[in-house]
UniProtKB/TrEMBL annotation:
PROSITE patterns: HTH_GNTR. This is Phosphonate metabolism transcriptional regulator PhnF. Residues 13-81 form the HTH gntR-type domain. GO terms for biological process: negative regulation of DNA-templated transcription. Keywords: DNA-binding, Transcription, Transcription regulation. It holds the Pfam family UTRA. PANTHER family: MANNOSYL-D-GLYCERATE TRANSPORT/METABOLISM SYSTEM REPRESSOR MNGR-RELATED, MANNOSYL-D-GLYCERATE TRANSPORT_METABOLISM SYSTEM REPRESSOR MNGR-RELATED. InterPro entries: Bact_HTH_transcr_reg, Chorismate_lyase_/UTRA_dom_sf, CP_lyase_PhnF, Tscrpt_reg_HTH_GntR, UTRA, WH-like_DNA-bd_sf, WH_DNA-bd_sf. One of its GO terms (molecular function) is DNA binding.
Length: 244
């Protein structure tokens, strides 16, 4: 970016707004395409002959409108359209993402065994103290992190689940390997909260940004719970559609 662009300081429009409108125009025209990184604040400031604080205010305004997103340590990107994410009896992340011409992937970010407390025992319909697998996963669409999910499973029913998930990146495939060839959602509970620091790092979002939280139970063909999940979703990258 070497061409100097003039600012009309007598127009009665704040300089940062003029820069914001210019960026909107460049995005609308395709100069900056969805998913691509914007020039740095320093580059934009030099092009307009302003300080970085002015540019930062323009970019913050665009971020509040969902036009761009700031990824910590990576830069500012033109936001893609939110992923439409239906939640119903047969919610499958890979199928949903693939159906929108995006590449799905899953990555294991942590696991351990723990004894079921009263809350988890009720969700999975097992006695308190039953050994559970706790699995932490990051779910990604076209290289963009969308969901951090914590899931619990009864260890005795699927002792190799962590290894199977690490190899495939698919909960469906891991459950199939354990002999659970089909499952359905029993229900969903949707809330919102501010992202915690660990999830913010995985999702590449600023501390304090809201995330959607979906709690769900999956059941097998006999109606027995096989998975309880708490999924935290980047609110600016996903649009939940509740199916009835």
């Amino acid at each position: 970016m070497t061409t100097r662009i003039s600012i009309d300081r007598g127009a009665g429009i704040a300089v940062w707004r003029q820069i914001g409108e210019w960026l909107k125009g460049e995005i609308a025209s395709g100069t900056f395409k969805q998913g691509t990184r914007l020039p740095t604040e320093s580059d934009i400031a030099a092009q307009f002959g302003v300080n970085r604080h002015t540019v930062r205010r323009a970019i913050a305004a665009l971020a509040s409108e969902g036009i761009v997103r700031a990824d910590q340590g990576r830069g500012t990107y033109v936001a893609a359209a939110p992923l439409s994410y239906p939640i119903g009896p047969r919610t499958r992340f890979s199928e949903i993402v693939s159906g929108q011409a995006k590449a799905p992937s899953g990555r294991l970010i942590g696991s351990r065994t723990e004894a079921a407390n009263a809350f988890l025992a009720a969700k999975l319909d097992v006695p308190v103290g039953t050994l559970l697998i706790r699995l932490e996963a990051l779910r990604v669409a076209d290289g963009i992190p969308i969901i951090v999910a914590t899931s619990w499973f009864e260890q005795a029913r699927m002792p190799n689940l962590v290894t199977d998930y690490a190899e495939t990146g698919s909960i469906t495939a891991a459950l199939t390997a354990a002999g659970i060839t089909d499952y359905q959602r029993k229900g969903n509970q949707i809330t919102a909260e501010l992202v915690d620091p660990q999830d913010a790092r995985h999702l590449n979002v600023p501390i304090g940004q809201p995330v959607l939280v979906v709690e769900s139970v999956n059941i097998d063909k006999k109606g027995q719970p096989v998975q309880f999940t708490q999924a935290r979703m980047a609110a600016d990258r996903i649009q939940l559609i509740v199916e009835t």
